[in-house]
Amino acid sequence: QAHHLKLEDKRDQIRQVFLYHELDLPRREEVGQMTAYEVARRLEKAYQLLGPTMARIEDEWLSPMLLRVLNLLIREGVTEEVPQSVREKAGESVLEVRYLGPLARAQRMDRVDAIERWVSQVLAVAEAKPEALDLVDWDEAFRLTARRQGVPEELIQDDDTVAKIRQARAQAMQEMQQDDARAVPQRVA
Predict the structure, then answer these.
(1) 15 CB contacts (<8 Å, ≥6 apart)?
(2) Which of 2, 67, 96, 116 sits a CA distance of 20 to 30 A from 30?
């Protein structure tokens, strides 16, 4: 029994080191088979705990190191230099490291949640006060949430394409209204 007590004590120490107690989750043995939702919730909580630490590691160590290595590769001629058009567009910070993994997405999701809550509030207020809808830049809100959720850029229409689609839709609506106006029989006085 002493051996089992020591083993359980070691497990508790490992759980403390990895902040398992902060996850506020029941032990795996107590819950039995988990559903996909439960697994997702556990991962989400773990990402929330790891997020600040990883963000600091990325900002203070990993990103500067990656940029330094890239600059060394450019200087040595191993890779091409950043095109002038990109430099002009980006300004001082020519390159930006963007992380794409599940932890990075979880870190960005706080803004998505904030946007969704705010839009819900605006829609609720808009029932009584429709001018509240004017406050939201709908295109930018949807673009930002799509990017933060990891939607591929190829699926997001650019501003010019969206303008053309809207113009074509407005023109089609105008033609339909004109056709409806012509179809109404004129009264003879």
Answers:
(1) 21
(2) 2
